[in-house]
């Protein structure tokens, strides 16, 4: 039986024999053609040992080799093939890829030599180039692309190069959906009061940041933030006028905004601290009353003393000063404001909001009518 030798391209081949005596003539043949020394062929004889060496095998070097020694011979059959393909940089440990829905998956590998077809598999099933799946081969580089991946594309991907394989684990997650269940609401407070902004955000592990007028808010003596599940709150203590503006809740890029309005406290002077002023009332002014309004008037009368009358738009309420005995008095000393039979009904003067008061010395007086003092 002829021995067989399997070699690969670029490999060196050495065939050696031991002879019965050292002085025998040795001849080497390949497929019946005698071989002689050449740059890549070496024929050696050392005593009873003889050998044939072929450097850098090529496919054409495949065939039957014969060693002829006088009346004896020995044959070898040599097969020359391509060397096994390996994946450059393959560690044997599966790589991990985490993608979001809608991303593109791109897997690449480099082979030890070109002109070799690899297979791409997912969970053991071979993939073909169609639709979202693209398979490319350029020189020693191989590439698998899956466009717009979905959760169903998760699995173990394999680049099969026959004698070498590379595995990659791929996980595709659904996109994270963040939404405000309850938005922020506008708030108005007085200076020095506390303002609290609240919102609810889903899911409950959202990273929420607070801003006031575009600047980040951090917890301190005046500002405090809390997060409990989906509930988030921002509290501003001792609000200042400068705090007025826009409050923003930033939930991983999703925004909710509200306005904070801080009003100053009114500083009013007590009435008792005002300087007394006097008002002159001109006669014969006919008022028009509407429901809910109030008018104040001072009018002349023929009795003793002055009369101060307060009339209401709801009708019927009035007060009289000295010299008037009320609505029941009759006769010359009676109340000129009587509802019936009064000879000189009061002519009230309406004092609307924003009445301009004048000191007595500068206020004009109607002829024959002296001013009646009214302390405001």
From TrEMBL:
Q: Please list the residue ranges annotated as the Ig-like domain.
A: 1-77, 83-169, 175-261
Q: Does the keyword Phosphoprotein apply?
A: yes
* Main localisation: cytoplasm
> Any one cellular component term from GO for this entry?
cytoplasm
Bias (Low complexity) occurs at 321-330
InterPro entries found in the cross-reference section = Ig-like_dom, Ig-like_dom_sf, Ig-like_fold, Ig_I-set, Ig_sub, Ig_sub2, Obscurin/Obscurin-like_Reg
* Localization annotation: Cytoplasm
Q: Which SMART domains match?
A: IG, IGc2
Question: Which keywords accompany this UniProt record?
Answer: Cytoplasm, Disulfide bond, Immunoglobulin domain, Phosphoprotein, Repeat
- Bias type Gly residues, positions: 331-340
Q: Would the keyword Repeat be found if you checked this record's keyword annotation? A: yes
Region spans: Disordered: 310-376
Please report the name of this protein according to its UniProt entry: Obscurin-like cytoskeletal adaptor 1
**Taxonomic source organism:** Xenopus tropicalis (Western clawed frog)
